[in-house]
Amino acid sequence: MSLVPTGELVEQARRAGHAIAAFNVITLEHAEGIALGAERAGLPVILQLSENAVKYHGSPYALAAASAAVARVSSADISLHLDHITDISLMHLAPELEVSSVMYDGATFPYEENVRHTREAVEWGQKHGIWIEAELGEIGGKDGAHAPGVRTDPDEARQFVDATGVAALAVAVGSSHAMTSKDAALDHELIKVLRSTLDVPLVLHGSSGVSDEELTLAAQEGMVKINIGTALNIAYTGATRSFLEANPSVVDPRKYFKPSREAVAATVEHALKVLANATEKSLA
């Protein structure tokens, strides 16, 4: 199958009143596991390549090409997305990498600078057919601008969307990046207000720390794109560690990558079914 543009998948989810999940890719096994989980769930999915993952590999080309190849041979509808991009030169590689969307991250700038840089990113995206997501109101789990406990102000968010023309907005409603326990408490009243205030899809970052029940409510209340990364790493690393502890003499990485990939697939399938269940409940 060919790659499906992120904007199409997000809009399909929005029209249907449910959420689509976006999972972070670090290794080839991540991409393969995500695709496998999507196939088993029978649902579309977004493969995300973060700026940090690109830096780890030293270049975006191999990881993007591998992810695109995985998407093409999958029976699931899959798109490619660049996540938390601060490097404009990396964003400008999106068309060449067959990436259809970018989350431009200007959150470390003062408000007016964030608006200016984000508007420039949107204008560039419109010229090149790239769907642009952005962020206002810091997401917890990072230093500085990303201090935990921050909440997006609805009025400021509306002004930001109007001033920049972004296609989607990542909002701070109680989740945090890189959480390894599912005990984040979302501000559901704020989600409802943001949904009624903004006319663009809402994006939830830091969803690995959000329980299934909280994710279900968030999807019902208006979150359209749900980003998940750390949960895959927990599953991947846990499976690798368990295998090597049980088989200390094994040196062939294929032996322990296989169960690790399977653990990613199972995590993805579960998350997608949770979001599908949210749709079913909202229609009941």
Question: Could you explain how this protein is built, in words?
Answer:
The chain is of the alpha/beta class and 284 residues long. It has one domain (6-283): Aldolase class I (TIM Barrel), CATH 3.20.20.70. 51% of the residues lie in helices and 14% in strands. The protein is built from eleven helices and eight strands. The longest helix has 31 residues, at 253-283.
What can be said about the biggest beta sheet?
Answer: 8 strands, parallel, barrel
Distance between the termini: 33 Å
Say what the CATH topology is: TIM Barrel
The amount of beta strand, in percent, is 5-15%
What keywords describe this structure?
alpha/beta, 284 residues, TIM Barrel, 14% strand, eight-stranded parallel beta barrel, 11 helices
What are the SSEs and their pairings?
Elements: H1 6-16, E1 20-24, H2 28-41, E2 45-50, H3 51-57, H4 61-73, E3 78-85, H5 88-91, E4 101-104, H6 111-128, E5 131-135, H7 154-164, E6 168-170, H8 188-197, E7 202-204, H9 212-221, E8 223-228, H10 230-246, H11 253-283
Parallel strand pairs: 1-2, 1-8, 2-3, 3-4, 4-5, 5-6, 6-7, 7-8
Helix pairs in contact: 2-4, 2-11, 7-8, 9-11, 10-11
Short description:
The protein is an alpha/beta fold. The protein is built from eleven helices and eight strands.
